[in-house]
Design goal:
This protein is mainly alpha-helical. It has 37 helices and 7 strands. It has a 5-stranded parallel sheet, with helices on both faces. A two-stranded antiparallel sheet has the order 3-4. This is KAP family NTPase.
Length: about 900
């Protein structure tokens, strides 16, 4: 980017061949400066103003740099612009040399000729005579002839000029888009960064924080190493298994379980209760599984716990009544039309054929009755023996397994018979003498109109079938109507037009057509009877889940009464039966059986079943978590079912060290384990970039260091950045980092002081609490620029042994638990002081590069590891922070020298920033 002296906006035209090009460039500059991501950066520092940025973008070298990537679109726009200018100049030249009278004469001539064309020949001759004579006179005069030619030339050039102007406008828009995307926009970012200064990344100018405000939104989830590892382990356990997801609280275990459950074919996610009973937990999981399967299959779980009996009955009857009313209304209308059309034909057929059918039926009935009577009277011994054998065979066939095959063959027979009837109807048409004669007479009279009428329905039919996949999905007719509305319109219109032809009307009026139609309908009825099935058959598993829900959530009672005795004396006996809730072993067995059936169904469809049990680490201790795993072990190990259980780190450690020195419950309960580790700096940056785009690197490193790479805390500190910026209007890193670190330190020390207050103190050791109170009083204003007294107070807590200055006798009175809390608070104060020294000073970029050049201890990722180490041991964390401070060349001791007590708190506001309440 050039740093030459900028030139005024009106001088930009000197850099372009045409003034219109300069206008397009200026418009592109203004559009790029108005982009929210750029406009947000303007005005945050004195030199970074919109006027300075616009002046820099109009400098000669910067204009050349911005236009260079867009030469092709510029040349196209320039060529069209030059052509348009030449066309416009020609039109102006022709317009200046025409006479208005010629325009009037030409218009009158054209109007007269138009009137003559639509009038009788005398009127036409009179209307054309005067204009013709006038035209001859004008044409013979040289000057008038020139005016007429110029007018005609102008009229022909005007539409061409309009089209050329439109093409030029399109080319200008294309060049403007090209400039904004590839030329001016990248240069604008460089110009704004240069105006902001070398440390421009230290400004908090994120585009938005929408992703941080929706922490559970799957749209912002970033795939981690643990997610990829879990997918591999699930793929390896094809026949099912139990996988534990181990990690600290907030590491993303719940998000990982929900993501894997969302990718499965059928999944159930449940939360482990803080205080649990194995029976209650399994009962809840059983009910949740049944309800989830009903929803998965598109059914509504029964709501008998919330609805009254009347509403339950209405809820079941109303859909059936609505469907029955629809069928009745359309069925009556359609049946009436069919009966009306076929009544005469069926009545005629019955009149002719009924005597023969009745005689044959009567003869058959008489013979059958004679045979039955003879067998009953003992006159046909052989027939009687045959009847007995048939009866025995019929009883033995009650459990025959081939009845389903017989039903299949019967259906095939009905379908073949129906198709045969339909085909016979079509083959009967050529066999009709009347139809052959009529068709022979009409063949020679077919004209162009008839061919057109025949082509219309054929075109519509081809349009319908051209892009049809021929897969049976739902109702084929409805899908065709939705996919090809134009084809259906042509087909129906063509059929309607065919009935305007005499031949079509004659063919439709054949007397045998009602009989043919009756046979065709009979064939369709046979096919429909063979292929009929319930509209929405309820799967057996859905019925099973409903029954199980009713059994698990209700108490069923049945009663019967018997009344006996004479009318004067009535005796009543009543019996009542009530179901017993299933016990724990029965509940386990039934749940495993149901889950296995669901898993087999999903496995056939090549889908996975996942049961995710979250929040097991809420049970309080590893002993309670291990006991919980031991109790639910009975439901694990279902084939083709993957159990995912989130556990704490100590339970995961128990599985890792299995067999050393003895085996525990995790060995037999878990098949594998996935450790969800805290994020690295790169992973934290990816999460923040997804959730808060535009957040610069120093703020990502700051939130990563404070959170230790734990995603939940990372999102929380990202929201704190937005909160501080909104509350204080700070945009500089040193201000925002100081505010955030001091607020966090104040809250943490307040928590330590609360824990210390629960310890036993004496008059000599109580000065430690006084020191904590003074430090918190220093932090209460939470001024980001700090003060000398505040730094001395933090150094006193971070570098001194808080109990060391009490003397040996007083120090011995401090309990071990209290001393451990003091060491933890001192280590966290040192960590906060380190972050203040790194992020709370200016020139961050230079110091970061210098620290990274001194060795691995200067890497920003090490700050997050130091925060993680604080959770392990304050002593190892101090060792790591000593290396970090050495790489960043920070003081390794108090800058004010040894001090015995914490200095008194401030009582005045900071001159740079107003007092802000923590």
């Amino acid at each position: 980017m050039s740093r030459r002296r900028p030139r005024p906006a009106w001088q930009v035209a000197d850099f372009f061949a045409l003034e219109r090009e300069a206008e397009v460039y200026l418009a592109a500059v203004d559009a790029c400066l108005a982009v929210p991501a750029v406009a947000r950066r303007l005005g945050v520092r004195p030199q970074a103003t919109a006027e300075n940025a616009r002046a820099a973008l109009l400098a000669e070298a910067n204009v050349e740099q911005a236009v260079a990537p867009c030469r092709a679109t510029q040349e196209r726009f320039r060529a069209l612009l030059e052509r348009s200018e030449r066309q416009r100049r020609r039109l102006d030249y022709l317009r200046d040399r025409t006479h208005p009278l010629t325009v009037v004469l030409c218009a009158v001539t054209v109007l007269a000729l138009g009137v003559g064309v639509f009038s009788s020949w005398p009127t036409a001759l009179a209307a054309a005579a005067a204009p013709s004579l006038t035209a001859v006179v004008i044409w013979r005069h040289q000057v008038w002839r020139m005016h007429v030619l110029l007018n005609l030339r102008e009229w022909t050039l005007r539409p061409r000029a309009s089209l050329l102007d439109r093409r030029t406008a399109w080319a200008a828009a294309a060049w403007s888009r090209d400039l904004q995307e590839h030329g001016v926009r990248p240069l604008t970012e460089l110009v704004v960064e240069a105006l902001l200064g070398e440390d421009h990344d230290s400004l908090l100018l994120a585009d938005n924080f929408h992703g941080l405000r929706s922490p559970r939104n799957p749209r912002y989830v970033v795939e981690s190493l643990a997610a990829r590892s879990l997918r591999r382990k699930i793929a390896q356990l094809e026949s099912g298994g139990t996988i534990a997801v181990s990690g600290s609280r907030g590491a993303g275990k719940s998000t990982l379980l929900e993501t894997c459950a969302g990718e499965a074919g059928f999944a159930v996610v449940v939360q482990a209760p803080a205080t649990y009973s194995p029976y209650d937990f399994l009962l809840s999981l059983y009910v949740r599984t049944c309800e989830s399967y009903l929803v998965h299959q598109g059914h509504v779980p029964p709501a008998f716990l919330r609805l009254s009996p009347f509403r339950r009955v209405a809820r079941r009857l109303l859909p059936a009544l609505r469907k029955g009313f629809t069928l009745l209304a359309f069925g009556l209308a359609a049946g009436s039309l069919v009966v009306l059309g076929l009544a005469a034909s069926v009545r005629s057929l019955t009149t002719r054929q009924w005597p023969i059918v009745r005689a044959w039926t009567e003869d058959l009935r008489r013979r059958a009755v004679d045979v039955v009577v003879d067998i009953w009277e003992g006159e046909r011994i052989g027939a009687a023996v045959l009847v007995v054998v048939v009866g025995v065979l019929l009883w033995s066939l009650r459990g025959w397994k081939q009845w389903r095959a017989v039903r299949t063959y019967a259906r095939i027979t009905l379908v073949v018979a129906g198709l045969g009837l339909i085909v016979a109807v079509f083959f009967s048409l050529p066999a009709d003498d009347d139809l052959r004669t009529l068709a022979g007479r009409a063949v020679g009279k077919v004209g162009v109109r008839d061919l057109f009428l025949l082509a219309v329905p054929l075109v519509g039919l081809v349009n319908l079938l051209s892009e049809q996949s021929w897969e049976i999905r739902g109702r084929l007719l409805l899908s065709l109507r939705r996919r090809r509305p134009a084809g259906w319109a042509l087909f129906v219109t063509g059929l309607a037009l065919l009935f305007t032809m005499p031949l079509t009307r004659a063919l439709a009026a054949d007397p045998e057509n009602p009989l043919r139609l009756t046979v065709a309908l009979l064939g369709l009825l046979l096919i429909k009877t063979a292929t009929w099935s319930p509209a929405n058959p309820i799967p057996p598993l859905v019925t099973t889940c409903r029954d199980e829900l009713f059994r698990l959530q209700t108490v069923q009672t049945a009663s019967s009464a018997v009344t006996a005795g004479p009318p004067q004396l009535l005796a009543t006996q009543t019996t009542s039966l009530s179901t017993v809730p299933p016990n724990f072993p029965e509940l386990v067995s039934d749940f495993r059986m149901l889950l296995q059936e669901i898993a087999v169904e999903q496995h056939r469809q090549e889908r996975r079943v996942v049961i995710a049990i979250d929040e097991v680490d809420r049970l309080g201790s590893d002993t309670a978590a291990l006991a919980f795993l031991g109790e639910i072990k009975a439901i694990l190990g279902v084939p083709h079912v993957h159990y995912l259980i989130s556990v704490a780190e100590d339970v995961g450690a128990s599985f890792v060290r299995r067999g050393l020195p003895h085996r525990g419950v995790t060995d037999s309960s878990l098949d594998d384990i996935v450790h969800v580790l805290p994020c690295t700096l790169e992973e934290s940056e990816e999460i923040l970039e997804r959730r808060a785009s535009g957040l610069s690197e120093p703020y990502k490193a700051l939130t990563h260091a404070l959170s230790g790479g734990v995603p939940r805390d990372l999102i929380r500190y990202g929201l704190r950045l937005d909160e501080i910026e909104t509350k204080t209007r700070f945009v500089e890193l040193n201000d925002i980092a100081g505010q955030l670190i001091l607020e966090e330190l104040s809250d943490t020390l307040a928590g330590f002081r609360t824990l210390l207050g629960k310890q036993r103190w004496t008059a000599r050791t109580g000065t430690i609490l006084v020191a904590f109170r003074n430090v918190m009083d220093h932090l209460r204003p939470a001024c980001p620029c700090g003060s000398t007294e505040l730094r001395w107070a933090l150094e006193h807590v971070a570098f001194h042994d808080l109990g060391g200055h009490l003397g040996e006798e007083a120090a011995a009175e401090v309990s071990d638990e209290a001393r451990e809390l003091l060491d933890e608070a001192s280590a966290y104060a040192l960590f906060s002081l380190t972050l203040l020294d790194i992020f709370g000073r200016g020139d961050f970029a230079r110091r970061r590069d210098e620290a990274a050049a001194r060795g691995p201890a200067g890497a920003l990722d090490l700050l997050g590891r130091a925060r993680q180490e604080l959770e392990v041991s304050p002593y190892s964390a101090r060792h790591l922070m000593g290396s970090i401070r050495s790489a960043w060349q920070l003081p390794e001791g108090p800058t004010a020298g040894p001090r015995v007590t914490v200095p008194m708190p401030r009582d005045a506001d900071c001159p740079r920033h107003p007092r802000v309440s923590v």
